[in-house]
Structures are given as C-alpha cells and as structure tokens.
Write a structure and sequence with these properties.
- The chain is 71% helix and 0% strand.
- The protein has eight helices and no strands.
- The chain is globular.
C-alpha cells in the first residue's frame, strides 16, 4: 500500500534517491541560513533588538544544511546538483515572496515593512517545514541513522514557527496588523502553488531514479494535486492564523550545535 512512510522508506533505502533528497534539503537550508544572516545584518535601528533571534534562525538553518551533508557523507555520497524545478526557496523568490536576494546583497538598511514581509514569509514557510519534519519524526524519529537528525531539525522548526508567531503578534499590536494579514495571505497562496510544483518535480526525479511504474507515478501525481486542491480551498488558512505560542522566546538562546554522524 502506498503511504508516506513507505514512500520515504523507498527513497531512504536507495543511495541515489537519498542523495538527491538530502542535496535538495541541504541547499534550501543553506539559502535560508544566508538570507537570515543578511537580514540580521541589515535590520533597521528600530528592529535591532531582533538581530540575535534572526541570527539564531540563520545559524539553525546552516546547521540543518550541515546535518544533511553529514548524512550523505556517512553513506559515502557526495552532494548532487539540485534541479532548478526543485528549488523551493528560489521559486518563491521568483514569485515575489519574501525579501529578494538582490535587496539582501545590498548594504541598505531594511525598513520596518521589510521586517514584516520577512516574518510573514517565514511564518508561512516554517509552517510547512514544521509539518514536514513532524511527519518524518513520526515515522523515522527512532531510526538508527536518521533519528537524531530528524528530532533535532523538527524541534528547531517548531521553535522557528513559534518565534514567527510571537514577533508577528508583537508587530500587529504596534499597528502593522492590516499589512501582516495581507502579506500572510499573499505568501500562503503563493507557497501552496510552489509547494505543489516542487512536489511534482521531486516525485518526477525520484520516479526516474527508482524506476516507478506509471500507475504508481500517476497515483502520486494525483495525490499531490488533491493536496493542492484542499489547500487552495481552505487549507491555506492554517498558514495565516496567529496565536500566542506555548513556548515563548523560542529563539532567545544560542543555537544548538549539530551532532556528529560519523
């Protein structure tokens, strides 16, 4: 029977599919690390108190990238080239979501609105990351090789999501509520389309590597489109709500060092 666990297990068991999976994940995390590092450096004076948390966010993302590289190295694998159609972060940027790399490469200070855009974009994408890592933790949290990595990354993504909720609520109280609501909705609707497109691309690449028969590939394609249909109808709303997180000041401390996977 086709299930999320059996699908991930198949990808995990094959060196080439595992290599591609880890390479895609590592690339996205590295981009996130760079973006947060630049944002921390460019925050406006009014938002400088956020800098340690933004930097911590970036350090966590860098750590996740190193973890995925370490998992490949443990199996004697080198990173694969990441296909353009699987580059979630850059595809979102091309849709005008978040702060563009051209802006972040300059030395101009960001505006307070830019900070709202950054946090709204992060709130949406961290929702996706938290859910994906929770799924992996459910099925592979006790895995001999992946368990520690999955548990650590999942906990970090939950912290990132909590941080976004807390900071957006603070900005909403400061008068940015209407902008936050509008940007969150724009980000969520764009993200679900990009997530669908990336999911289709990743499954197509995995299918070629693993030799999936047409009926299996068709079933996975249909499932991805069904998820998108649900998210387009109503599921996107979970990405735009704001609530006080159970864990406060989730990024208030130093980043946790990545474990060794030798």
């Amino acid at each position: 029977m086709l299930s999320a666990k059996s699908l991930f297990q198949e990808i995990l068991d094959h060196d080439e599919s595992f290599r591609l999976f880890c390479s895609i994940a590592a690339s996205g995390e590295a981009q996130g690390g760079w973006e947060n590092g630049r944002i921390a450096a460019l925050l406006p004076e009014k938002c400088r108190a956020l800098a340690p948390k933004v930097a911590r966010h970036g350090a966590d993302e860098d750590k996740h990238g190193r973890i995925f590289h370490a998992l490949m190295k443990k199996r004697g694998l080198r990173p694969a080239d990441v296909p353009d159609d699987t580059d979630y972060t850059m595809l979102l940027e091309r849709r005008g979501i978040g702060l563009g790399h051209a802006k972040l490469r300059r030395e101009d200070r960001l505006t307070e609105r830019d900070v709202v855009v950054y946090l709204a974009h992060s709130r949406v994408t961290e929702q996706r990351a938290s859910e994906q890592m929770e799924l992996l933790r459910k099925h592979f949290g006790g895995h001999a090789d992946l368990g520690r990595a999955v548990r650590m990354i999942s906990a970090d993504e939950d912290n990132h999501l909590a941080y976004c909720h807390e900071e957006l609520l603070r900005l909403a109280r400061a008068g940015h509520g209407p902008t936050i609501h509008r940007v969150l909705r724009e980000c969520a609707l764009a993200e679900i389309r990009v997530y669908r497109d990336v999911s289709l691309a990743v499954m197509a690449h995995m299918g070629r590597i693993l030799g999936w028969p047409r009926p299996k590939a068709a079933a996975l394609t249909a499932a991805i489109h069904a998820v998108y249909a649900y998210e387009r109808l109503a599921g996107w709303r979970r990405m735009v709500s704001l609530a006080t997180p159970r864990r406060r000041d989730a990024l208030g401390g130093p980043a946790v060092t990545a474990p060794e996977f030798a």
